[in-house]
Write a structure and sequence with these properties.
The chain has 207 residues and is mostly beta strands. It is built from no helices and 16 strands.
């Protein structure tokens, strides 16, 4: 289906969200109202649009959005925010109910000390209904793959970010999360180091 308005670079574009079963959601930013705005649309099988119109979620574009759907049908999204410092974005999260109504009054910063690397991060929902985030964090003193859990109230569960891998020379790509039946979270990623690439995997037990 054609999306009205121009879709801008670095806006979310067509980002697919897993909904379980045959349903899914798509959200994007376009300029149909002569400004960048953030819209969502739910779909059922087979590709049937639900509702009579696109849902206006935000009056602004959110950069490089990743998303997951919780068991209750709610939507959790993470994105890069350049509001405080255009050269040092923060990783923020918003949680919407099944009708795309925000559950929180303002976005939550995933990690107060994080310096995420562009689109190299991902989000999933664990069996307890909490949001799990993993990202490539790179600062002048830190380079590694970090992990944090955010509960439905917007609070960080882990006292400090969990470091899954760290090395000054490694780049971390294709980060993936998958909740396992026992409550643990599987994490997979690609490490690139001095011309060599390796696929790695670890398991984080429930906290």
């Amino acid at each position: 289906n054609q999306i009205p308005g121009q879709i801008e670079e670095y806006a979310p574009g067509l980002v697919h969200e897993s909904g379980g079963g045959d349903s899914f959601s798509v959200f994007w930013a376009d300029t149909r109202n002569n400004q960048l705005q953030f819209f969502a649309r739910d779909f059922g099988a087979p590709f049937n649009r639900e509702g009579d119109q696109d849902i206006l979620v935000q009056d602004q574009a959110l950069s490089r959005v990743k998303a997951a759907r919780a068991p209750d049908g709610s939507h959790v999204i993470i994105y890069l925010s350049f509001e405080d410092d255009p050269d040092d974005p923060t990783l923020e999260m918003m949680w919407f109910d099944a009708a795309w109504i925000p559950r929180w009054s303002s976005p939550v910063t995933v990690s107060l000390d994080a310096s995420p690397t562009w689109q190299y991060y991902t989000v999933a929902v664990d069996t307890s209904g909490r949001a799990v985030v993993a990202w490539w964090d790179r600062t002048s003193t830190t380079n590694g793959l970090l992990y944090q859990i955010i509960d439905t109230a917007g609070s960080r569960v882990l006292f400090g970010d969990l470091t899954l891998s760290t090395s000054s020379s490694v780049e971390y790509y294709d980060i993936a999360l998958d909740g396992l039946p026992d409550g643990s979270m599987a994490v997979g990623w690609v490490e690139y180091d001095s011309g060599d690439s390796h696929v790695l995997y670890t398991r984080v037990t429930s906290t």
